[in-house]
Amino acid sequence: MKLFLDDFRNLSDVREYMLQSLRHHYAEGDDWVIVRSYDQFLNYLQKHLLAGKPPITLVSFDHDLDKEHYQALHHPIIYDKFKVKTGYDCAKKMVELYQSIGMKLPETILSHSMNAAGRDNIFRAMKGLPPHSLKSDKDKAVKIIYPDYLFNPAKDY
Asked: Are 131 and 121 in contact (CB under 8 A)?
């Protein structure tokens, strides 16, 4: 089962600009569930995990889930100023939910977001790290190794 988070794009829209090596992850089929917002994402995750359904094997995140997010394309992104939650908020909540029930994260985490700063923060959330901040000296010591669009919890976590 695969989960796709994006406010308006579909799988076919994303395949066009993703890296050649990742296009196979976006093959359309019956096992994709598309959610359009933080609330839909959270509701789906909670219902899916509590129902004991087969595990989610892949999640693809967009960062900018509302027009207000489009102006935040560079670090640092000030999340407190947003009224609508982002893909970063979804990633943080997903990690929290999986940890609370003792489950491992899905084997493949992708971000198809065109917002590089937001994409980076999504992957930082997967590692339990805060978003980038120009004020934090700790960020300089943190090394995150992953391709731009792919985070593998089994290898990178």
From this structure: yes
For 3, the 3-state DSSP assignment is strand
Residues 6 or more apart in contact with residue 41 via CB below 8 angstroms = 3, 5, 35, 90, 93, 94
Per the CB < 8 A criterion, the answer to whether 111 and 63 are in contact is yes
Pairing assessment for the beta strands 32-35 and 58-61 based on DSSP bridges: unpaired
Every domain of the chain and the residues it spans: 2-156
pLDDT(143) > 50: no
| CA-based nearest residue to 123, from 97, 152, 98 | 152
Global model pTM greater than 0.85: no
CATH number of the 2-156 domain: 3.40.50
Phi-psi sector, 2: left (phi>0), alpha (psi -120 to 50), beta: beta
Gap between the terminal Cα atoms of the chain: 21
Q: Assign 141 a pLDDT band (cuts: 50, 70, 90).
A: very low
3-class SS of residue 88: helix
63: left (phi over 0), alpha (psi -120 to 50) or beta: alpha
